[in-house]
Fold this protein.
Amino acid sequence: MSASLSRPAADHLQRIQRLSRVMVLACMALITLLPMALIYYWATASAPELAVQGNLQPSALQLPLQLWQRVAAAAVTAVPLALLLMGIWQAKQCFALFVQGQVFTTQATSYLRRFAGWVAAAALAAIVAGAVTSVLLTLQNPPGTRQLAVGLSSNHLFTLFFAALVWLMADVIGQGQALAEENERFV
């Protein structure tokens, strides 16, 4: 910690570092647990529950699900999860910099932007994954009862909004960094 920091600034930095340590652990827990939760869910959920994942009515599946359908649909829904996990990894890297006291740095801003980008990609992929899942889950239905369901939920919209918000905040921080560096050259 720099000797030039005032006591309140030093206390604030220590609080950021302490909370960032917790966030690094939380990110690692999510990166570890979410894939296991996805596998568990697709292995154990009932067919009506899984139908909802494909934007379908719970009664849309007319025949028992085959193992290959569960595996294929799980793989499809794993794509948006993988994108989200990439975003969480970027957040973890950003928090790791905060732990080191590197708060307003170009690298931290870059991690925030990447986090926002991966989260937005995950939200868009989730929309596509839902549609593909609907087809996979109804593929065994008799002809004429197979479905393609496309859904856009408030969760998708909120996630996109959140990603845009973080992206904009990172852009503002980056602009502030550029102005500070420019001011330092004049002093």
Q: What stands out?
A: The chain has a mean pLDDT of 92. Residues 7-186 form one domain.
